[in-house]
């Protein structure tokens, strides 16, 4: 039995709210249950030095948690003077995942920065950030079209992410904090709406997992991701 | 004429939303028009080293802006590895202001950290942070009473803040970004609900100001602060 | 009774020594009693990026204390790898204050850096730094005239600063360390020699202050500042 | 056809040299073809603060590359003042992987630090580091037994890692730099010698991968890991 | 011919002013011609961790230059967030040199920090700092005797330093900036008043130097150091 | 009697292995007994800003130690976020020493970075680094000739270094760790193969040294350096 009473293949209530703040080209509040992340997409002219002159665009991501987004207060990274290892790991994952959504040649020499800031954490912040970040990205690309800077949106596919894991011996979908902190295995699955894998990151926290568990988790993930892609598309049209 | 069409002595629409996030002992979303700041108050046992063993409490504040809370994206301070001078200046002001609200002996050896994170900026973030931070602080103190860690709340007075300035020759109350960026003078006034000044920070941006302008600005500030104290008290009782 | 035996409206002995060191375009030792600050003004070609191409100049300030300028040794900021919050706050105040003294268009694309280094501290280092820094700045501007880089000095007014406060219930002028560390209220007043306010920073340390105390403090400050302007002008002519 | 002429299921020449340097409790030079990593295991008394008093041990890893271990010189992280994101990501992976090899209760309050320093890079440094690091760890645990600090080695299983990927449409084992820099997909597989997965990190670099490719890659990985476990065991006995 | 018109074996005018600032246990302004350094000695209870419990004292030094102590302004190290390599090198030299002056067992578990801050630079700042720092140290040790914390001063010998070099083919004593910046060789010689070498740091800037030049330079250094020891002793008695 | 059983004028076994790693233009493993340092020389186009447009080249060095190159593990400098003072001091010494080997005009606007990374330490790492670094540098210069970027190698002389010291009252050559940690005096001597001194850094660790000891140490150093120059030349020709 899951602490939340959910079925093994049941996600939390998931919402995507567009235009959550007013300045960014794309701004989304994504909620996976009590996990709440503000994702903004900011368009900048030009690209990093290693890409200059190639006619291609770039997408990068930054991630942060408000100090009291968690049960006990974490030190503020800006005050400590450096981003922690977990933060760095997560923002690199978000960036790689979202780059897969876009045709970089069609984007041209623009950089889009996706900022994912967790205002309340309850497990699964990185998967929420990827899912909401892709919608903010789509919005920012539409803005470029509306501003006549691009002829059409270079979004080539939707990207979303969900976590799966093995909790008390049972594979489950979309772990919340109570499950995540005790799970034997935790895996983040990032896919495209066309069915391809973008990232697969599975970690055996307490016990190794085997091929059968891996297969069951992947099946659950695909099931959950179908819902997420539907929500993204509905939100953009909404 | 003010860009917003407001009267010189008129504040923006101001709201204080309690229990905005679920983990902190006090959590308030404060809105001064389009300026939106999440203020959380976190209670920690013990005090900083310089206060140890004196039986007194401590209150400190930290301030941050989400990178895209502003019109153009600012670099993330955690990524740059240091807090900027403006951030440091503001968080010191918030901390000093809120310490005036509390009887430190009655608080005992607890530290309360007020985190003020701007999710959308449109001028006046520091005054919003002080005003919302004091309500989050009051909530956290109530929590200590409910948890039997204190017999009664050591809040001795309310503290709130508002900006005033001289815009196109006219003293005005509660400047938004359009006014703030062009004002001749900008002053932040922090007071108690008993009528005392806690902090006064006036800066001549374009032209020096004189005693008559100072007096007019202080009158406007007192007028605006009366509304803020009423909102704080109503919110706590609400 | 003040610890120093001074009258409430009496400043400490104040001296301004020009050409204190030999390399800088302006170099002043300013002494407010036992508070001693070396202020140098360094002229650099060009301006910061945000001003480039506008034909205007820039003035900025940096502040530091020698580790043993104080009663007990403070850690060296260069060794700790960052400037403390108080340092940042003070150097921003000095910079804003001194920018008010100069016609930036007339200065043209030069940057003047004012370095204020405290070699002995006894209260009031920031007001001494502003007062001495303005003289160093005036000297540096004269140097630009003598070197034919400017036709005439772009100094448009003198800027000086003094502290006032409420000590044991009485408003007093130019607090030394003994008073400052126990004052109920501490206010720094920065004005021009034409009578305008540039900065007003009042802080209630122990108890809020009221309008009457504010008025009295401002009267004291204006009295003290008259002396400072006379000293600055005499020094430049001397 | 692979650039090296290897078969799809063929690893590079792999060697593990024990006692490569003289000071560390475990010291291994691991070579996967031209990739060469020095792995040392250092035993320290005590554990990090979050584990104190629980009677359990801790294993952590650090990773670095000599500046000219690569084709063009990289800036030295110590000189730049921070570890890059890739470094942080890799050392966290190594640490998590190697913690799975040891019974922490049996280790008791010791910390073992695994340092993995790349002296020559040609792809696959993280998988080489895990594979060689586990042997250094095993050696350090033996040292604790020989020194009578533990009754028997708390190594509960061997952990090794290998990369697999899709190169020009074909799943291949143990990618070198020429393949890695052009692969469509790159996956690092960490397993135990008992057949369980510890970590799975797959990234679609150029094109998403599908379930069939995933399955093929996992089969290749298991094949390669069998060789690695045999080498580890032979080395320890050797 | 030397730029200053001095003879090859002639030092600049050298003065040592005690009690230059009021807070430190020892405070000396040392002037080697236009080079001016404030040296303070601060006594702290206790010793660094690596010495705890051994009953011995410790002496360490820190060095800094005011940003405009030099011909063109240098960036402030506190603002850049790190001490430069030259600074680190110099303060380590000062610390090692002054530790040779004191009987650490007799000092007991006290730490003395020597801060050497250059307010005006004209070559030879490190030798001035050692020479003035030793006098500040002697003063601080006397303070410990006067305060009954030590029975007698643990100063076991005087330490002083002077530079020598080869300028236009001729060995010269106590180089000023004009010479130093063009010298073929520059050597700093630190000795005790009993005739022993403490540190010898010779650098061939433009051309290697030979044994004969080395011998000549050492003879000049000994000659100059005799004067410095006489000045130190006279100052302490003065 | 020396701990190693060596004669006072006897060096350890010294080897220089060229082409130790494959990517760098010059790559040397230098061994002074159990001290092992990898020295690589990397050629970069262009020069630092202060040299731009002068047609001259530049040589600089960086130094590091693997965390467990020593008897007890040292913290990794990259993880601590700064290079220690000893590291900075050593890499500046190496850089100055190796610049003496090359005709900078003939090198033209190239920068050569010498990385010296200690993989096993047993005393004398800086002298090994200079000696091995000069061979790596020579190799890199040859590469520039082979690649037709220079007509002939701008190496104008060989530079090598050795340590000497006073151990239990006797001057000895090439101290290992056991001697170094107990020596009364430790001196590093850097010379050219033409007999000139480049750097002389002598430090009295326990007791001052006198002129006679200095002379004896220099004689030993010259004796040792003859061997080193022979080894360098043989290696390059080998």
Automatic annotation (TrEMBL), chains A, B, C, D, E, F:
Could you provide one GO biological process annotation from this protein's UniProt record? tRNA processing
Keywords, in A-Z order: Nucleotidyltransferase, RNA-binding, rRNA processing, Transferase, tRNA processing, tRNA-binding
The record's annotation in SUPFAM superfamilies points to:
Ribonuclease PH domain 2-like, Ribosomal protein S5 domain 2-like
What Pfam families does the entry give?
RNase_PH, RNase_PH_C
Taxonomy, superkingdom:
Bacteria
Q: Which reaction does it catalyse?
A: tRNA(n+1) + phosphate = tRNA(n) + a ribonucleoside 5'-diphosphate
Where does the chain bind phosphate? 86, 124-126
Any idea of its EC number?
2.7.7.56
Sample GO molecular function, one term: tRNA nucleotidyltransferase activity
Domain Exoribonuclease phosphorolytic spans what residues? 10-140, 159-222
Alphabetical list of NCBIfam families matching this protein: RNasePH
Q: Which family does it belong to?
A: Belongs to the RNase PH family.
What role does it play? Phosphorolytic 3'-5' exoribonuclease that plays an important role in tRNA 3'-end maturation. Removes nucleotide residues following the 3'-CCA terminus of tRNAs; can also add nucleotides to the ends of RNA molecules by using nucleoside diphosphates as substrates, but this may not be physiologically important. Probably plays a role in initiation of 16S rRNA degradation (leading to ribosome degradation) during starvation.
Question: Quaternary structure?
Answer: Homohexameric ring arranged as a trimer of dimers.
- The protein, known as: Ribonuclease PH
The gene for this chain is rph
């Amino acid at each position: 039995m899951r602490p939340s009473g959910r079925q093994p293949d049941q996600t939390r209530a998931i919402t995507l709210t567009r235009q959550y703040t007013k300045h960014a080209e794309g701004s989304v509040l994504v909620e996976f249950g009590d996990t709440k992340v503000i994702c903004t997409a900011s368009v900048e002219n030009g690209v990093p030095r290693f890409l200059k002159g190639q006619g291609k665009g770039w997408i990068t991501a930054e991630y942060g948690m408000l100090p009291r987004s968690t049960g006990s207060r974490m030190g503020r990274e800006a005050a400590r003077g450096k981003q922690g290892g977990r933060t760095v790991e997560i923002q690199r994952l978000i960036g790689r995942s979202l780059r897969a959504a876009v045709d970089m040649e069609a984007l041209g020499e623009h950089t889009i920065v996706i900022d994912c800031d967790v205002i309340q954490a309850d497990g699964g912040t990185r998967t929420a950030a990827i899912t909401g970040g892709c919608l903010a990205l789509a919005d920012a690309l539409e803005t470029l079209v509306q501003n006549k800077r691009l002829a059409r949106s270079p979004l080539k596919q939707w990207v979303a992410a969900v976590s799966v894991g093995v909790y008390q011996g049972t594979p489950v979908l979309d772990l919340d904090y109570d499950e995540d902190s005790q799970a034997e295995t935790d895996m983040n699955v990032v896919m495209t709406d066309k069915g391809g894998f973008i990232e697969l990151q599975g970690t055996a926290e307490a016990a190794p997992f085997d091929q059968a568990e891996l297969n069951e988790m992947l099946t659950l993930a695909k099931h959950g991701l179908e819902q997420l892609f539907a929500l993204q598309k509905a939100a953009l049209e909404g």
